[in-house]
Design goal:
Blueprint: E1 19-24, E2 27-32, E3 50-51, E4 97-104, E5 111-120, E6 123-128, E7 153-158, E8 163-169, E9 178-180, E10 185-186, E11 193-194, E12 201-202, E13 210-211, E14 229-231, E15 237-239, H1 244-249, E16 259-263, E17 268-271, E18 273-275, E19 285-287, E20 292-294, E21 317-319, E22 331-334, E23 343-348, E24 358-361
Amino acid sequence: MVTIHKKSVLALWVSMFLLSACGSGSGGEGSTQSDSVTTDVSSASSGSATQVDNSVTEDSGNGSETDDSGSQDSGTGLDTDNGTAVTSGSTDGVLCDYFYSEFNDSASVQMTSNADWSCTGSARQLTANGIPDHETGTFPNPGNPNTISETAVSVSYTLTPEQTDTVSTLGGPRGATGYVLNGVKIDANTAGSCDDSGNSCSLVGNTGNWHIEALGQTSFDFGTDDNNAHVQPNGAYHYHGMPEGFIALRGGSETSMTLIGWAADGFPIYARYGYSDAQDSTSSLKVMTGSYQLVENVSSNRPSTSVYALGTFAQDWEYVTGSGDLDECNGRYGVTPEFPQGIYHYYATDTYPYFQRCVKGQL
């Protein structure tokens, strides 16, 4: 069993009466929003996941699968030995038998969270109900008046992902950029936008030219909770940024890399920490940062920065090669505990874009 550690309360002030929704920059689903301050209220929840490793583990260099070999984190009692890739170029052998089914007693959930990952042939398959396995904020709330409900999740990702030079933008109607192990989808963009004047804004429809960010701004309230998540009108709870509650369940800390999910192209997703030298597993861990910076030359067509500070809109950010640790899709190539021979992989970061908005692998 794992105890979830509470994170700081996130409160966003709203500047006008708007609608709440999320999706990609090209569209999404909406719901009604009213003016107020959002205060997230969390309830206790705990659970455990069963993992069966069908490969030989290499953790701690002793090949042992016992809990005292370093595969447990911070005394939580959770086995975090995810297995090791069987062959180079394949993710087979890593979390190929991850199963979770526990009742989530958070006040806004009160349902069983189910997630079942398996590897069959050349595919990694997920069957889930989209219910989070950790405590959540209060839903509905003034910024997000939608109720968490089950959504049928059935996806299949390749076990032999191939990195390409092509960047594929996902999210909203284009489909999830990936799924966290608990079966909750990653959808970092929103369907909110403003016109050039900034006088007409809506959190649905993307009818304006300036696409509103869910995180990192204080002008609009999307009702996100401490897990940087909220709920779509169809009841789908989903992440816009760091899934703090799930990371806590996985025993995530500054002492280890934490694999939290799989991207749509089949590559793994890690949270926050990576090796300071991407090719050296003995190098120290560091907080990964994205390579996006606020634009220096603000468009004359942009709504006034005195009303909407830089960072409010997606167009306020530009990718600057080498300014952070990661590429335009918040990924990089390097070694990880599960892939000692190296693999392209993504990160959830505390800096923009928070979660990848695109993938670099072949779809």
